[in-house]
């Protein structure tokens, strides 16, 4: 299945937005990556929700373009197309975010803008 995610671009390389994978935030292109699957939580102590971790993706390219507006700190963010397997809903998300066990980044579609 094709999905989309937001990555940070740094020195021409793609990086995760927050959590590292195998000790690095750098994500290679055209290589299958397997998420570190475990129970994690989102949010503050008052609002935290447990869920099974994985790579965060969006099914719809326009949802990905809208999602970037949630970020506050200016940085070089790009929309990336990826192939995914083992996809599931992130039930407590207020957006259409999905979680996937495996992904392969296939191409950078465009630079994303905050405004």
Descriptive account of the structure:
The chain has 115 residues and is mainly beta. The protein has a single domain, classed as ADP-ribosylation fold (Alpha-Beta Barrel). Helices cover 6% and strands 49% of the residues. The strands form 2 sheets. Strands 1, 2, 3, 4, 7, 8 and 9 form a 7-stranded antiparallel sheet that branches. It is globular and about 35 Å long. The mean pLDDT is 87.
What is the structure about, briefly put?
The protein has 115 residues and is mostly beta strands.
Question: Key features?
Answer:
1 helix; globular; ADP-ribosylation fold; two-stranded antiparallel ribbon; 7-stranded antiparallel sheet; about 120 residues; mainly beta
Radius of gyration, in Å, reads: 14 Å
First-last Cα distance: 29 Å
Helix-strand topology string: EEEEEEEHEE
Question: Can you name the CATH architecture?
Answer: Alpha-Beta Barrel
Question: What portion of the residues fall into strands of 2 or more residues?
Answer: over 45%
* Largest sheet: number of strands, sense, barrel closure: 7 strands, antiparallel
The CATH topology is: ADP-ribosylation fold
> Helix/strand/pairing class, anyone?
mainly beta
The parts where pLDDT drops under 50 for at least 5 residues are none
Number of strands: 9
Count the helices. How many? 1
Q: What would the average pLDDT be, to the nearest integer?
A: 87
CATH class: Alpha Beta
Residues in helix, %: under 10%
Instruction: Characterize the quaternary organization of these chains.
Output: single chain
